[in-house]
Amino acid sequence: MSKSKLYSLNSEKVASATNEWLAKRGVTTKQIAELVMFLQKDYYPELTIEECELYVQAVLSKREVQNAVLTGIQLDLLAEEGKLMPPLQEMIENDEGLYGCDEILALSIVNVYGSIGFTNFGYVDKLKPGILKKLNDKEGAQCHTFLDDIIGAIASSASSRIAHRKQAEREGNMDLPLD
């Protein structure tokens, strides 16, 4: 029997691992929600941090997002441990400016949520507010070359979901799914 016939994906296991790995890397859904609030507060002053956190959780429930989180964190961990081959090791370890694969992985998340997510991503990637500033700090032992972009993409995607949802509410179309 081939290996592929034995394999069966466990969606709950993947979702659980995503949340666990984010927590182990020091990132909470509340911190991501704070980024969402930063991006949306001027457009929706009535928005609450709790509402933002619900949107973050909805984004994190998507398989594409979970795949990107798990892949990015794994690459960051391997770089921390010095387990990548040169020159990739040095590029990821130092968050090389011309190495754009970290942004490309993050854009795979944003791509699920449309063009508003892209513009939000570029904005938070440049400013590095909130948890992104901490993750981008190169002083500690941890490497977050992928994770800072992934977190920015999750926040940008949640912001895009909010914008689309609020527009649907204005139009009286409440049948939109939360995911």
Briefly summarize what is shown.
The protein is mainly alpha-helical and 179 residues long. The chain is 66% helix and 0% strand. The chain has helices spanning 3-6, 11-24, 29-40, 49-60, 63-80, 88-93, 101-110, 115-127, 131-136, 147-170.
Number of H- or I-type helical stretches: 10
Average per-residue pLDDT, rounded, comes to 93
Rg calculated over all Cα atoms: 17 Å
Task: Please outline the major beta sheet.
Answer: none
Strand content: under 5%
Tell me the helix content.
55-70%
What overall form do the CA principal axes indicate? Answer: globular
Order of helices and strands: HHHHHHHHHH
Number of strands: 0
Uncertain residue segments: none
Straight-line distance between termini:
37 Å
Structural class: mainly alpha
Write the layout of secondary structure elements.
Elements: H1 3-6, H2 11-24, H3 29-40, H4 49-60, H5 63-80, H6 88-93, H7 101-110, H8 115-127, H9 131-136, H10 147-170
Overview of the molecule:
This protein has helices at 3-6, 11-24, 29-40, 49-60, 63-80, 88-93, 101-110, 115-127, 131-136, 147-170. The protein is mostly helical. Helix 3 packs across helix 10 (147-170) and helix 5 (63-80) runs antiparallel to helix 10. The model has no long low-confidence stretch (mean pLDDT 93).
Question: Which keywords apply here?
Answer:
179 residues, mainly alpha, 10 helices, globular
